[in-house]
Task: inverse folding
């Protein structure tokens, strides 16, 4: 990937997070009641019912296309539309965060009622495009999605495509051939908005069970 293009993507993501921080202090000034806005999920005190780290305002489900483990194009926005979706960027040879995160996701899903578990889509996108081919990703994911109503979705692509996917999802671009990457799981609700993300090691299982039930 060209240095200039990657620099522009990184700058765009950085600008987004600055804007996100500013928006958090301005949300009370905006108009309300628009049909185009995501559903409000707060309790009677005005606090979020969710337990993850909130996005203010919520983020719309992104559109990007990568390659799945069968070698077919996978349009994230289209394939997951209207479904509760967990999106995580990582790589299969990661020694700790990635396998722990996927294991926690799997354990949380097994604690959910069957009717809820059947609705959830889990999408893993590799940040190590040099080594994680579709076959390697599929083999790795089988360690975690056993006995699930549907297999976890594994995606890869060119460096440009994966960088663009991270930018579309407002995730900080991975560095060092994908080994330094965002450790957060983004949760998109059935209304196609993400209100929060989760970090491994912060009661991830319990947070996922609580919020996916909502």
Result:
């Amino acid at each position: 990937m060209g240095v200039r293009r990657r620099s522009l993507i990184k700058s765009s993501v950085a600008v987004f997070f600055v804007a996100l921080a500013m928006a958090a202090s301005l949300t009370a000034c905006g108009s309300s009641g628009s049909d185009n806005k995501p559903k409000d999920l707060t309790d009677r005190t005005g606090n979020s019912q969710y337990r993850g780290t909130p996005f203010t305002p919520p983020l719309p489900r992104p559109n990007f296309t990568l390659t799945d483990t069968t070698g077919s194009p996978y349009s994230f926005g289209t394939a997951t539309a209207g479904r509760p979706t967990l999106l995580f960027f990582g790589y299969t040879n990661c020694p700790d965060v990635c396998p722990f995160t996927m294991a926690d996701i799997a354990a949380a899903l097994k604690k959910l009622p069957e009717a809820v578990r059947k609705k959830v889509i889990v999408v893993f996108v590799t940040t190590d495009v040099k080594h994680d081919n579709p076959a390697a990703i599929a083999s790795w994911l089988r360690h975690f999605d056993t006995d699930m109503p549907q297999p976890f979705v594994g995606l890869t692509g060119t460096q440009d495509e994966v960088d663009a996917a991270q930018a579309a999802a407002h995730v900080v671009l991975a560095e060092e051939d994908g080994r330094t990457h965002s450790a957060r799981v983004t949760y998109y609700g059935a209304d196609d908005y993400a209100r929060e993300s989760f970090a491994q090691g912060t009661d991830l299982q319990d947070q996922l069970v609580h919020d996916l039930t909502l």
